[in-house]
């Protein structure tokens, strides 16, 4: 009986040491992965990396990790041609089935899903913010984007008619969707500029706009978009997502 008690104590101690070693190893791996991801994606700040699942050392021995969560506070994504960038806020991605090379120089996730936000001031850079002629004697430009409720964006436009700026900006509720990585904003109706009759295509040249989003981490793509209080919320997804190497 005494021998059994000693054996049980010994097993508990070994188990405790294994847990400690496992947690030390996973913390070290998270720091290394964060540094490599920062280098790979040329990030200005080190991202948050959290390796899920226990035990970690057993997963490492098998050459695959079940689940890794990555958080990037600010990410500068490519915004189409011309080298322009657009800031993506609070990108949170969940990577599943992460396999890595024997020397840990590269890692690829079988699949990834996540969320992020594009602030309205960032999306506004895409709209026509400089006065543009929409009819003889009439110019207009977008001066603000905000949450319109029920998944809509409120697009606020200023107009000048025959040299006189309208006393109040006009606004229109717009739908937002994504098509092959391009976020598109489309007015549900048309605003009136001082009662002047203007062709629809000329008005939509101001109210409607689009923003291409490329170069997200590891090749993930924008999947869905939805207007929200702080900006356009996006979901992302991808397969064979490269984390490093």
UniProtKB/TrEMBL annotation:
Domain of life: Bacteria
Protein name: DUF2993 domain-containing protein
